[in-house]
Amino acid sequence: MSAEVETSEGVDESEKNPGALEKENHMRMVDLSELLKEGTREAHDRAENTQFVKDFLKGNIKKELFKLATTALYFTYSALEEEMERNKDHPAFAPLYFPMELHRKEALTKDMGYFFGENWEEQVQCSEAAQKYVERIHYIGQNEPELLVAHAYTRYMGDLSGGQVLKKVAQRALKLPSTGEGTQFYLFENVDNAQQFKQLYRARMNALDLNMKTKEKIVEEANKAFEYNMEIFNELDQARSMLATETLKDGFPVHDGKGDMRKCPFYAAEQDKGALEATSCPFRTAMAVLRKPSLQFILATGVALAAGFLAWYYM
């Protein structure tokens, strides 16, 4: 009733609590892009110093893993763009809706066709860890759409920043066509100037009518995205550990039948220890284990996320 009395008496909000209103206005002036940059710096630093990032920069990536990495990206962007489409008119996201300029699903569909052939959809699946991230994106889109900003900004700005570098690394390392087959994901045909577009995107994002609490939640969500990514790296590390354990127990032959086995570093080390008869080179066992679909997708998702972290590296 008191509120009704105040309204009827024409009491202005600023007259009721000018200090609170001033604080709120100050909070709205804090740029979301700067909050995201500073708020995710630690997670970003951890990510860019992973072995995957270092290897990718050196061009140490195999074609099979790159193919599966593309698969992981396809599932991620399919989920993200589905929720962006759902929320394209939401006031907390509408200004950032740039389907022609940014959306990657169509480009990834072309890459999938190039790598896997006509019936590629029947050949691929999403890894368990990647599925958790996909589910998070769907949850956000359907329950807290204002937090989609965290995922969109992290992904697309990173892609625009490092995409061309990653494209060249992949083409050189995997001997992919210079005409773009297999790397359509990195090609933004409707963005003439990436730097100018990123400035526009940040300006639109900073102009969103969000209070400080919501901005803090967006930064928190961006860090959660990094956490999901790091969980997949942990999953990948576990896969590597499993490979190492199995190879010590299986005792399979060393090589693929090529070259001099005596030149194998594993052979030489075990011979020096006098343990050659009890152990063997992990080559064949590793290849057998890597043929398991579950491990393929774990590795693929790790490579895909490394690409994303590399993109952040060049922002």
TrEMBL record:
Gene Ontology molecular functions: heme binding; heme oxygenase (decyclizing) activity; metal ion binding
Gene Ontology cellular component annotations, sorted alphabetically: plasma membrane
Transmembrane annotation, as ranges: 294-314
Biased composition (Acidic residues): 1-12
Region span, Disordered: 1-23
Pfam families the record matches: Heme_oxygenase
Protein name in the entry: Heme oxygenase
Source organism (scientific name): Saimiri boliviensis boliviensis
High-level lineage: Eukaryota, Metazoa, Chordata, Craniata, Vertebrata
